[in-house]
Amino acid sequence: MDIKTAASLHRLRLVSAPEAVSFLLLLVCSVLKRTTEFNAVPVMGMIHGVLFVLYVLFWLDAWNRTKWDFKIAALYFVLSVLPFGGFYAERRLKREAQDAVIASRARREGTVNAA
């Protein structure tokens, strides 16, 4: 995995958890708006909207660089619209990045030992 691919996965991973938190907070704010006088939906909606747009942009970049098949790319997109999906995406992306680092080290050590 090259540095640009690793960076794109890292960016997607960094935005996935905050996007999930903002989605949950937006849901809470929506319930509070309907049941009390408290209305933070406009503020949380804007914050969540910005984070969601960032997630989609980083998702497109990661899909382009990693060459995921359609099923994997669709899974990461669907996870962005599920309330706890961002947390699952973050954990899965972390594992994927660690596996890529291990594979890269193994390839590098294999070529060094063969020389």
UniProtKB/TrEMBL annotation:
A Pfam family recorded for this sequence: DUF3817
Primary location group: membrane
Alphabetized InterPro entries for the sequence: DUF3817_TM
Domain DUF3817, residue spans: 9-95
Bilayer disposition of the protein: Multi-pass membrane protein
Keyword terms of this UniProt record: Cell membrane, Membrane, Transmembrane, Transmembrane helix
Residue intervals passing through the bilayer: 39-60, 72-89
Compartments, record wording: Cell membrane
NCBIfam families, sorted: integ_memb_HG
Name listed for the protein in its UniProt record: DUF3817 domain-containing protein
